[in-house]
Specification:
By secondary structure, this protein is mainly alpha-helical. 66% of the residues lie in helices and 8% in strands. Strand 2 and strand 3 form a beta hairpin. The N and C termini lie far apart (42 Å).
Length: 143
């Protein structure tokens, strides 16, 4: 059955636009961080743990707005690189606590200038208003 739908307005789909922008931004950060053996997602995880301290995987997933299963896969790579330590929680053996290691902090410190470069490049590309809007969207999404 043929529909009378006009899909022309879908060309301005906010979901598609946000996903395309996110992929482009991620590529910018990945390109800068690559020489330090880090991806943007890994750098973000290490920074979050460095700033907030040890967290359960559930708490970390919530703080990042990430899916737990995706986060668990990413954390396994960081654990293999000795950048994080994952241990059972003291009060609940089913819960696992993640903490950044000294080696993880050192990796962040080495890669920090590259992150700054990617941050500046992205901010210049999207402008001050775009950066402010992006931050506000992120805050609202985690709200």
């Amino acid at each position: 059955m043929r529909s009378c739908l006009s899909l022309a307005e879908c060309a301005d789909c906010l979901c598609l636009a946000s996903r395309r922008a996110a992929r482009r931004i991620t590529r910018t950060f990945d390109r800068e961080l690559r020489r330090y053996g880090l991806r943007a997602t890994q750098f973000t995880l290490l920074v979050m743990l460095s700033l907030r301290g040890a967290m359960t995987i559930g708490e970390l997933a919530e703080a990042l707005g990430a899916e737990r299963t995706t986060l668990t896969r990413n954390l396994a790579l960081l654990e293999n690189a000795a950048w994080v330590r994952i241990q059972p929680a003291e009060d609940d053996a089913r819960s696992r606590v993640v903490n950044v290691t000294d080696q993880g902090r050192l990796s962040v410190a080495k890669a920090f200038p590259a992150w700054r470069k990617a941050q500046a490049r992205t901010a210049a590309t999207i402008g001050a208003d775009g950066a402010a809007a992006l931050r506000e969207l992120a805050r609202a999404a985690l709200g």
